[in-house]
């Protein structure tokens, strides 16, 4: 998964968030700022990106790019 011990915690927190909010979609910054409020210490964007990569490999999340180049993450169908 990752050598960073925070990543598995973030993976589980993101899984739980997506179960509670199955239609949620946001940018990496939005996810870092809004989806993980109870995680302390506050995760870095890099840690959240690694957790999202784990979930993407598990086909639990997907990302897409908006016309303006913004990357959005959401639960995989």
Question: Can you give keywords for this protein?
Answer:
three-stranded antiparallel beta sheet; globular; 77 residues; single chain
What does this structure look like?
Helix 1 (6-20) crosses helix 3 (45-57). This protein has three helices and three strands. A hairpin with a 5-residue loop joins strand 2 (61-65) and strand 3 (71-75). Helix content is 47%, strand content 16%. The protein has 77 residues and is an alpha+beta fold. The chain starts with 5 loop residues before the first helix and ends with a strand. It has a three-stranded antiparallel sheet.
Topology, please?
Elements: H1 6-20, E1 25-26, H2 28-35, H3 45-57, E2 61-65, E3 71-75
Antiparallel strand pairs: 1-3, 2-3
Helix pairs in contact: 1-3
N/C terminus separation = 23 Å
The largest pleated sheet is described as: 3 strands, antiparallel
Mean pLDDT: 94
Question: Which sequence of SSEs, written as H and E, runs from N to C?
Answer: HEHHEE
Strand content: 15-25%
Which strands sit side by side, in order, in the main sheet? 1-3-2
- Poorly predicted parts: none
What helical percentage do the residues reach?
A: 40-55%
Oligomer: single chain
Shape: globular
Find the structural class using helix and strand composition: alpha+beta
Strands, total number: 3
What is the CA-based Rg, rounded?
12 Å
